[in-house]
C-alpha cells in the first residue's frame, strides 16, 4: 500500500494530476455510448423517426445521428423539431426536420416523399409517435369512451403508423438491409384501469 501511495504521489508530482483522475479521464475518453454500441454503425443510412421532437423520439434521433445516420426528425411541433435538428447539426450530424402529423394521411405521404427527395433514400423507419397529450390525461374507462376520443388515439397511434409503413415501403424495399422499428408500450400487455384505446393501439403493434 505504501509503494502504491508513493507511486501515486510521484505521478501527481510529475503531472500535477492524481493517477486515479488521469485513469478516469482515459476511460471516459474511450467510453462508447451503450446505445451506440447496440445500434452499430449507421454511416450512410437515412432514418426517419416519427414523434422525434421530444422525449424518447428525440433521444433516438440523437443516438442514430451519433451512430452516423442522416436523421429525419418528424413530428407535429415545428419549433421543437427544429431544436432537435439544430442540436444534431451542432454535434456534427446530419438532420432535417419534416412536419408529419400521423393523423393526416396526406401529410404522412408528403413528409416521407420530402425526406427521400432530400437525402435520396430511406433505410430505417422508426414508428415512435403516440398521442401522449391524450394518453397522459387518461383515455377513460371503456364504457365512458366516446368515438371521437377513441379515434383521436387510434388514428395516430395505429392507423398513422400503418400509413408511415405503407408510404415508406417502396423506398425501404430498394435496400435489402432496411428496417422498420415499431415502438410499443407496456399497456399492450398489461391491464390498466383506464387506457383501453391506448392499450388497443399498442397491442396491435406487438401482435
From TrEMBL:
<protein>
    <recommendedName>
        <fullName>3-oxoacyl-[acyl-carrier-protein] reductase MabA</fullName>
    </recommendedName>
</protein>
<dbReference type="InterPro" id="IPR002347">
    <property type="entry name" value="SDR_fam"/>
</dbReference>
<dbReference type="InterPro" id="IPR036291">
    <property type="entry name" value="NAD(P)-bd_dom_sf"/>
</dbReference>
<keyword id="KW-0134">Cell wall</keyword>
<dbReference type="GO" id="GO:0004316">
    <property type="term" value="F:3-oxoacyl-[acyl-carrier-protein] reductase (NADPH) activity"/>
</dbReference>
<keyword id="KW-0964">Secreted</keyword>
<dbReference type="InterPro" id="IPR050259">
    <property type="entry name" value="SDR"/>
</dbReference>
<comment type="similarity">
    <text>Belongs to the short-chain dehydrogenases/reductases (SDR) family.</text>
</comment>
<dbReference type="Pfam" id="PF00106">
    <property type="entry name" value="adh_short"/>
</dbReference>
